[in-house]
Specification:
Elements lengths: L9 H14 L4 H15 L5 E7 L5 H9 L2 E8 L10 E4 L12 E7 L8 H11 E12 L5 H15 L12 H10 L3 E14 L2 H10 L16 H15 L6 E13 L18 H5 L15
Parallel strand pairs: 1-2, 1-4, 2-3, 4-5
Antiparallel strand pairs: 5-7, 6-7
Helix pairs in contact: 2-3, 5-8
Length: 301
Protein backbone atom coordinates (compact mmCIF):
# COMPACT_ATOMS: atom_id res chain seq x y z
CA UNK A 1 0.00 0.00 0.00
CA UNK A 2 1.35 3.43 -0.91
CA UNK A 3 2.44 5.82 1.78
CA UNK A 4 0.45 9.00 1.26
CA UNK A 5 -0.06 11.96 3.57
CA UNK A 6 -1.08 11.18 7.14
CA UNK A 7 -4.30 13.09 7.80
CA UNK A 8 -5.77 11.30 10.82
CA UNK A 9 -4.24 10.30 14.14
CA UNK A 10 -5.71 6.82 14.11
CA UNK A 11 -4.45 5.93 17.59
CA UNK A 12 -6.31 8.96 18.94
CA UNK A 13 -9.36 8.00 16.88
CA UNK A 14 -9.44 4.54 18.51
CA UNK A 15 -9.06 6.06 21.96
CA UNK A 16 -11.99 8.39 21.34
CA UNK A 17 -14.14 5.56 20.03
CA UNK A 18 -13.38 3.61 23.21
CA UNK A 19 -14.29 6.68 25.27
CA UNK A 20 -17.58 6.93 23.38
CA UNK A 21 -18.46 3.35 24.25
CA UNK A 22 -17.62 4.03 27.89
CA UNK A 23 -19.81 7.15 27.92
CA UNK A 24 -22.69 5.31 26.27
CA UNK A 25 -22.46 5.71 22.50
CA UNK A 26 -24.81 7.84 20.41
CA UNK A 27 -25.75 5.52 17.55
CA UNK A 28 -28.70 7.11 15.73
CA UNK A 29 -26.65 7.73 12.56
CA UNK A 30 -25.04 4.28 12.52
CA UNK A 31 -28.37 2.57 13.20
CA UNK A 32 -29.94 4.43 10.28
CA UNK A 33 -27.05 3.49 7.99
CA UNK A 34 -27.16 -0.17 9.08
CA UNK A 35 -30.87 -0.36 8.28
CA UNK A 36 -30.40 1.19 4.84
CA UNK A 37 -27.38 -0.99 4.08
CA UNK A 38 -29.48 -4.09 4.72
CA UNK A 39 -32.24 -2.70 2.47
CA UNK A 40 -29.75 -2.02 -0.34
CA UNK A 41 -28.37 -5.53 -0.02
CA UNK A 42 -31.87 -6.99 -0.26
CA UNK A 43 -32.12 -5.47 -3.74
CA UNK A 44 -29.19 -7.62 -4.89
CA UNK A 45 -30.63 -10.87 -6.26
CA UNK A 46 -28.09 -13.26 -4.80
CA UNK A 47 -26.79 -14.63 -1.53
CA UNK A 48 -23.25 -14.18 -0.26
CA UNK A 49 -21.30 -17.01 1.31
CA UNK A 50 -18.67 -15.05 3.22
CA UNK A 51 -18.94 -11.38 4.21
CA UNK A 52 -16.73 -9.02 6.20
CA UNK A 53 -18.02 -6.00 8.10
CA UNK A 54 -14.98 -3.76 7.94
CA UNK A 55 -14.31 -1.18 10.65
CA UNK A 56 -17.92 -0.31 11.54
CA UNK A 57 -17.76 1.28 15.01
CA UNK A 58 -20.69 -0.76 16.38
CA UNK A 59 -22.16 -4.18 15.63
CA UNK A 60 -25.32 -2.72 14.06
CA UNK A 61 -24.32 -3.66 10.51
CA UNK A 62 -23.28 -7.21 11.40
CA UNK A 63 -26.61 -7.75 13.18
CA UNK A 64 -28.53 -6.26 10.24
CA UNK A 65 -26.74 -8.58 7.81
CA UNK A 66 -27.53 -11.58 10.00
CA UNK A 67 -31.20 -10.61 10.09
CA UNK A 68 -31.37 -10.11 6.32
CA UNK A 69 -30.73 -13.77 5.51
CA UNK A 70 -28.55 -12.72 2.56
CA UNK A 71 -25.22 -13.82 4.07
CA UNK A 72 -24.13 -17.23 5.32
CA UNK A 73 -21.03 -16.26 7.31
CA UNK A 74 -20.35 -12.77 8.70
CA UNK A 75 -16.99 -11.75 10.12
CA UNK A 76 -16.61 -8.43 11.95
CA UNK A 77 -13.14 -6.96 11.31
CA UNK A 78 -12.12 -4.25 13.79
CA UNK A 79 -9.00 -3.35 15.78
CA UNK A 80 -10.92 -3.63 19.08
CA UNK A 81 -12.39 -7.11 18.60
CA UNK A 82 -11.99 -8.06 22.27
CA UNK A 83 -14.28 -5.22 23.39
CA UNK A 84 -17.31 -6.10 21.28
CA UNK A 85 -20.19 -8.60 21.11
CA UNK A 86 -18.64 -12.04 21.68
CA UNK A 87 -21.45 -13.81 19.80
CA UNK A 88 -20.13 -12.60 16.43
CA UNK A 89 -17.23 -14.07 14.50
CA UNK A 90 -14.36 -11.60 14.74
CA UNK A 91 -10.91 -10.88 13.44
CA UNK A 92 -8.60 -8.12 14.66
CA UNK A 93 -7.95 -5.96 11.61
CA UNK A 94 -7.24 -2.40 10.59
CA UNK A 95 -8.92 -0.85 7.57
CA UNK A 96 -5.49 0.24 6.32
CA UNK A 97 -3.91 -3.26 6.45
CA UNK A 98 -6.36 -6.04 5.64
CA UNK A 99 -5.41 -9.61 6.66
CA UNK A 100 -7.56 -11.36 4.02
CA UNK A 101 -6.21 -13.48 1.18
CA UNK A 102 -6.82 -12.38 -2.39
CA UNK A 103 -10.13 -13.63 -3.76
CA UNK A 104 -11.36 -14.92 -0.39
CA UNK A 105 -14.50 -12.83 0.23
CA UNK A 106 -17.90 -12.56 -1.46
CA UNK A 107 -18.99 -9.32 0.20
CA UNK A 108 -17.34 -6.45 2.08
CA UNK A 109 -19.51 -3.90 3.88
CA UNK A 110 -18.47 -0.93 5.98
CA UNK A 111 -20.40 1.82 7.76
CA UNK A 112 -18.99 5.23 8.75
CA UNK A 113 -15.41 4.00 9.07
CA UNK A 114 -13.56 4.41 5.76
CA UNK A 115 -13.72 8.22 5.91
CA UNK A 116 -11.05 8.07 8.64
CA UNK A 117 -8.58 6.01 6.55
CA UNK A 118 -5.42 7.90 5.62
CA UNK A 119 -4.90 6.00 2.36
CA UNK A 120 -8.40 5.45 1.03
CA UNK A 121 -7.24 4.52 -2.50
CA UNK A 122 -4.96 1.87 -0.98
CA UNK A 123 -7.75 0.55 1.25
CA UNK A 124 -10.11 0.25 -1.72
CA UNK A 125 -7.46 -1.62 -3.72
CA UNK A 126 -6.97 -4.05 -0.82
CA UNK A 127 -10.73 -4.61 -0.59
CA UNK A 128 -11.03 -5.25 -4.32
CA UNK A 129 -8.18 -7.76 -4.19
CA UNK A 130 -9.78 -9.57 -1.23
CA UNK A 131 -13.04 -10.00 -3.13
CA UNK A 132 -13.73 -12.99 -5.31
CA UNK A 133 -14.59 -12.25 -8.94
CA UNK A 134 -18.11 -10.76 -8.93
CA UNK A 135 -17.78 -9.98 -5.21
CA UNK A 136 -19.42 -6.80 -3.93
CA UNK A 137 -18.28 -3.79 -1.90
CA UNK A 138 -21.06 -1.82 -0.23
CA UNK A 139 -19.92 1.00 2.05
CA UNK A 140 -21.24 4.18 3.65
CA UNK A 141 -18.93 7.10 4.49
CA UNK A 142 -19.41 10.50 6.02
CA UNK A 143 -19.53 12.95 3.11
CA UNK A 144 -18.02 16.36 2.56
CA UNK A 145 -21.21 18.30 3.27
CA UNK A 146 -21.43 16.98 6.84
CA UNK A 147 -21.31 19.52 9.68
CA UNK A 148 -20.94 22.40 7.25
CA UNK A 149 -22.67 24.65 9.80
CA UNK A 150 -20.21 23.77 12.55
CA UNK A 151 -17.26 24.24 10.20
CA UNK A 152 -18.48 27.69 9.16
CA UNK A 153 -19.21 28.84 12.71
CA UNK A 154 -15.83 27.67 14.04
CA UNK A 155 -13.94 29.27 11.16
CA UNK A 156 -15.59 32.64 11.71
CA UNK A 157 -15.14 32.54 15.48
CA UNK A 158 -11.47 31.57 15.34
CA UNK A 159 -10.78 34.20 12.72
CA UNK A 160 -12.30 36.88 14.93
CA UNK A 161 -10.92 35.77 18.31
CA UNK A 162 -7.61 34.13 17.48
CA UNK A 163 -6.66 35.72 14.18
CA UNK A 164 -6.54 32.44 12.25
CA UNK A 165 -8.35 29.22 11.48
CA UNK A 166 -7.34 25.70 12.58
CA UNK A 167 -8.72 22.46 11.11
CA UNK A 168 -11.59 21.20 13.26
CA UNK A 169 -13.78 19.19 10.89
CA UNK A 170 -12.26 16.48 8.69
CA UNK A 171 -11.92 17.13 4.92
CA UNK A 172 -14.21 14.30 3.81
CA UNK A 173 -14.25 13.33 0.11
CA UNK A 174 -17.05 14.33 -2.26
CA UNK A 175 -19.05 12.15 -4.64
CA UNK A 176 -16.99 12.76 -7.79
CA UNK A 177 -13.72 12.00 -6.02
CA UNK A 178 -15.08 8.76 -4.57
CA UNK A 179 -16.41 7.57 -7.91
CA UNK A 180 -12.99 8.13 -9.46
CA UNK A 181 -11.32 6.27 -6.57
CA UNK A 182 -13.53 3.22 -7.13
CA UNK A 183 -12.53 3.14 -10.79
CA UNK A 184 -8.84 3.57 -9.95
CA UNK A 185 -9.08 0.68 -7.49
CA UNK A 186 -10.32 -1.59 -10.28
CA UNK A 187 -14.00 -1.94 -9.36
CA UNK A 188 -16.51 -2.67 -12.08
CA UNK A 189 -19.95 -1.03 -12.26
CA UNK A 190 -19.10 1.61 -9.62
CA UNK A 191 -22.01 3.59 -8.16
CA UNK A 192 -21.84 6.55 -5.78
CA UNK A 193 -24.83 8.36 -4.30
CA UNK A 194 -25.62 10.25 -1.12
CA UNK A 195 -28.26 10.93 1.50
CA UNK A 196 -28.45 14.10 3.55
CA UNK A 197 -29.89 14.16 7.04
CA UNK A 198 -30.66 17.27 9.07
CA UNK A 199 -30.67 16.81 12.84
CA UNK A 200 -31.94 19.55 15.15
CA UNK A 201 -30.36 20.36 18.50
CA UNK A 202 -31.29 22.46 21.49
CA UNK A 203 -27.80 23.97 21.53
CA UNK A 204 -24.41 23.65 19.84
CA UNK A 205 -23.11 22.06 23.04
CA UNK A 206 -25.68 19.27 22.62
CA UNK A 207 -24.34 18.68 19.10
CA UNK A 208 -20.77 18.52 20.39
CA UNK A 209 -21.81 16.05 23.10
CA UNK A 210 -23.32 13.81 20.42
CA UNK A 211 -20.12 13.99 18.36
CA UNK A 212 -18.11 13.00 21.43
CA UNK A 213 -20.42 10.03 22.04
CA UNK A 214 -20.04 9.04 18.39
CA UNK A 215 -16.25 8.98 18.82
CA UNK A 216 -16.16 11.55 16.02
CA UNK A 217 -14.41 14.52 17.58
CA UNK A 218 -11.32 16.04 16.00
CA UNK A 219 -8.62 13.44 15.28
CA UNK A 220 -6.76 15.38 12.58
CA UNK A 221 -2.97 15.30 12.75
CA UNK A 222 -2.93 19.06 12.02
CA UNK A 223 -5.43 19.90 14.74
CA UNK A 224 -4.62 22.65 17.21
CA UNK A 225 -3.22 20.95 20.32
CA UNK A 226 -3.92 23.80 22.72
CA UNK A 227 -7.22 23.90 24.59
CA UNK A 228 -10.18 25.58 22.95
CA UNK A 229 -10.55 29.10 24.31
CA UNK A 230 -13.80 29.84 26.10
CA UNK A 231 -14.16 33.06 24.15
CA UNK A 232 -13.82 31.18 20.85
CA UNK A 233 -16.37 28.58 21.93
CA UNK A 234 -18.81 31.27 23.06
CA UNK A 235 -18.44 33.21 19.82
CA UNK A 236 -18.84 30.02 17.77
CA UNK A 237 -22.07 29.20 19.61
CA UNK A 238 -23.33 32.72 18.99
CA UNK A 239 -22.57 32.58 15.25
CA UNK A 240 -24.14 29.14 14.96
CA UNK A 241 -27.34 30.34 16.64
CA UNK A 242 -27.50 33.43 14.43
CA UNK A 243 -27.05 31.59 11.14
CA UNK A 244 -28.47 28.11 11.59
CA UNK A 245 -31.43 28.34 13.97
CA UNK A 246 -35.01 27.54 13.01
CA UNK A 247 -37.95 29.68 14.10
CA UNK A 248 -38.33 27.66 17.31
CA UNK A 249 -34.69 28.30 18.27
CA UNK A 250 -33.42 24.78 17.61
CA UNK A 251 -30.19 24.49 15.62
CA UNK A 252 -29.70 22.55 12.40
CA UNK A 253 -26.77 20.16 11.86
CA UNK A 254 -26.25 18.49 8.49
CA UNK A 255 -24.93 14.96 8.03
CA UNK A 256 -24.19 13.63 4.55
CA UNK A 257 -23.85 9.88 4.06
CA UNK A 258 -22.13 8.85 0.83
CA UNK A 259 -22.80 5.33 -0.46
CA UNK A 260 -20.25 3.40 -2.50
CA UNK A 261 -20.80 0.16 -4.35
CA UNK A 262 -18.62 -1.68 -6.80
CA UNK A 263 -18.01 -5.22 -8.00
CA UNK A 264 -14.80 -7.16 -8.43
CA UNK A 265 -14.57 -7.67 -12.20
CA UNK A 266 -16.06 -10.84 -13.69
CA UNK A 267 -16.73 -11.89 -17.28
CA UNK A 268 -20.46 -12.22 -16.63
CA UNK A 269 -20.90 -8.52 -15.81
CA UNK A 270 -22.40 -5.99 -18.21
CA UNK A 271 -19.83 -4.12 -20.28
CA UNK A 272 -20.12 -0.93 -22.33
CA UNK A 273 -20.57 -1.37 -26.07
CA UNK A 274 -17.55 -0.90 -28.30
CA UNK A 275 -17.41 2.42 -30.21
CA UNK A 276 -19.26 2.14 -33.54
CA UNK A 277 -21.24 -0.94 -32.54
CA UNK A 278 -24.59 0.82 -32.04
CA UNK A 279 -27.46 -0.47 -34.17
CA UNK A 280 -29.18 2.95 -34.38
CA UNK A 281 -27.87 6.48 -34.85
CA UNK A 282 -28.27 8.73 -31.78
CA UNK A 283 -29.72 11.54 -33.91
CA UNK A 284 -32.47 9.20 -35.17
CA UNK A 285 -33.28 8.05 -31.62
CA UNK A 286 -33.59 11.68 -30.44
CA UNK A 287 -35.44 12.85 -33.54
CA UNK A 288 -32.90 15.57 -34.28
CA UNK A 289 -30.79 16.61 -37.24
CA UNK A 290 -27.19 15.43 -37.13
CA UNK A 291 -24.57 18.17 -37.34
CA UNK A 292 -20.92 17.54 -38.13
CA UNK A 293 -18.27 18.46 -35.58
CA UNK A 294 -16.85 21.12 -37.88
CA UNK A 295 -20.13 22.94 -38.46
CA UNK A 296 -20.87 25.65 -35.91
CA UNK A 297 -24.50 26.33 -34.98
CA UNK A 298 -25.89 29.75 -35.80
CA UNK A 299 -27.99 31.70 -38.24
CA UNK A 300 -27.41 31.14 -41.95
CA UNK A 301 -27.12 34.12 -44.27
Amino acid sequence: MSQGPIIFDRRLLRARQQRARALGPETFLLDRVAEELAERLMAVLRRFERAVDLGTPTDAVAHALAASGKVETIVAATPDAAQRDASLLRVAADEEALPFADGSLDLVVSALALQFVNDLPGALIQIRRALKPDGLLLAALIGGESLSELREAFAQAESEIEGGVSPRVAPFADLRELGALLQRAGFALPVVDSDRLTVRYQSVLALMRDLRRMGATNALIERRHSSLKRATLARMAEIYAQRFADADGRLRASFEVVWLSGWAPHESQQKPLKPGSAAQRLADALGTKEQSAGEKPGRRS
